Amino acid sequence: MTPLPRPADEAERLIDVTDIASFDRATEELLNAFVRVASDLVGVPISGVSLVGEEEQFFKAIKGLQAGSTPRDNAFCTHAIMNPDEVMVVPDLAADPRFQNNDLVTRDPSLRFYAGAPLRGSRGHAVGTLCVMDRVPRELTPTMVERLQDLARGVSAALSLRQAIREVHRAARTDTLTGVCNRKGLEEILAEADPQRLGLLMIDLDGFKPINDTYGHAGGDRALAEVARRLRETVRARDTVARLGGDEFVVLLREVERPEAGLGLANRIHSALADTFILNGSAVPLRASIGFAATPWHASDISTLMERADAALYTAKRAGRGVTRSADAFQGGEAVGRTALQAWLREAFAPGGTVPFHLVFQPIADLRTGKVRSVEALLRWRTDSGLSLRPADVLPVIEGMGYSGALDRWVVGEACRLIALGHPPYTISVNASATSFGVPGFDAQVEAILRAHGIAGDRLIIEMTEGSLAGDPDAALANMHELARIGVRVVLDDFGGGHGTLARLRGYPFDAIKIDRSLVADCARDAQGTALMEAVADMAHALSVPAVAEGVESAEQLALLSRCGVDRAQGFLVSRPVAWERLEEAAEGVPARIRAALAEQRASTSP
């Protein structure tokens, strides 16, 4: 068989053919309707919509003939598409030198008549024909030829419309930044997927915020696109990469033979991300935490599968950077994922919702007298299953959802409610997020809550971090002055944890400085840690404000803090956090505990 010539636009034409060949069943039903109309129009028993591929011709719709494929160089339609603006009519195939020896003519189905009107794809290339055939020779009138061509134009228009609709649908399911599947697309794939032997790798980038902060959103976008590219190159062809939003990705694994296969892919992803990535001339680390779950080992349905993978990811995030965790680690259900947290938070902060938090209180003791004058309110959350979540696990999710302000108002309100009970008579120190403190009007919110509970401002202390000054320092300063006006004291929290500066201390009227627990942990380890603690305490005294140490856990630390001139302390050595009802009892035992710890340390260091 001598190969026939190919159209000049062959490469682009085949792209159109590929698009149409993958159309859904609804499109095939539409084409079948056109085929029936074509048979009735010409009065022949056989008609079809054919596509001419790279090596063969095949039908997308057929009437009156067993559907099948034909080698391209043996197909009538291959000739027809060479003149895409004309209908090719062959009155008698057996009398035409091009086809008289064709197996379709000399053998079953013994075709004698053919007419093919070329079809165009969405890019304008001839992809195949709307063809009519018969087992006897026949002629077509010019009017019949014209009507057949009109009908072919209708088929082409329908194909182009279906392609446009599919492109819109595809765009709606594709992440525009990275080109991978988006959340909606993943949901559609999962809705149609066989839930057996599916695996999910939930992937969350570590340290992505510093990339955005350093290189701007354009740099962050380039990093996300690079991550998506590396994921696509690492997974198998039958797996799906999706970006859920932000720096969250998912890999859907099909035909998982054993859980170890998913963990192996997770390791390869870690390795792929570890390769050097250059952004604006600098090497930028790409790291990720990964959670893995698979059916049927960790879940029996897709909904549970996603929950388990999400919970595994959340466990991985808490374990450190570049870590993978499998749902195997908590088969008893002792974990909760970010998705579940978000659902519970939406319900909790909805109008009329019940916030699932409660407060516990840790005494803050004067190191000279041992007495407790104030307490810090600490947030706790226990799920319905009995799992206790740390604030460090929950607060980033709350911040990301925009609920920080609502949570701050709840904490201040709950503290004021307890103060209003009148007993025990402690001032309560509460933490305010940077979101609340760094915007105008926070002072007015606090004043309104105090007024609602009928208590004076001097019963409340607000702890803020230096991050509160990053957004709008003028607003933060105004809030501090207005809070001072109503008697509320403001304390700088976590000083020395990596963000504190002398400029901040001089420029803002703090009532105390709380020394970060990292400095406290190191203060008794070596001379450098001790000298640093002495410097911080001296600095506080130079500014005429008390120095308060957090995280005190040993008698050695307590004694050294006392020698360095630190004024107050809190931590497990002083007292563990307790419920409001047990606070007075806990506070009564603090002076004796401090005296005993100091005496123990003196005895251990005396010659």
TrEMBL record:
PROSITE patterns: EAL, GGDEF
Pfam families xref list: EAL, GAF, GGDEF
InterPro entries, sorted: Biofilm_reg_signaling (IPR052155), EAL_dom (IPR001633), EAL_sf (IPR035919), GAF (IPR003018), GAF-like_dom_sf (IPR029016), GGDEF_dom (IPR000160), Nucleotide_cyclase (IPR029787), Rev_trsase/Diguanyl_cyclase (IPR043128)
Domain GGDEF: from-to ranges: 196-329
Domain EAL: start-end pairs: 338-591
Entries under PANTHER family matching the protein: BIOFILM ARCHITECTURE MAINTENANCE PROTEIN MBAA, DIGUANYLATE CYCLASE DGCP
Protein name in UniProt: EAL domain-containing protein
Organism expressing this protein natively: Pararoseomonas baculiformis
Source organism phylogeny: Bacteria, Pseudomonadati, Pseudomonadota, Alphaproteobacteria, Acetobacterales
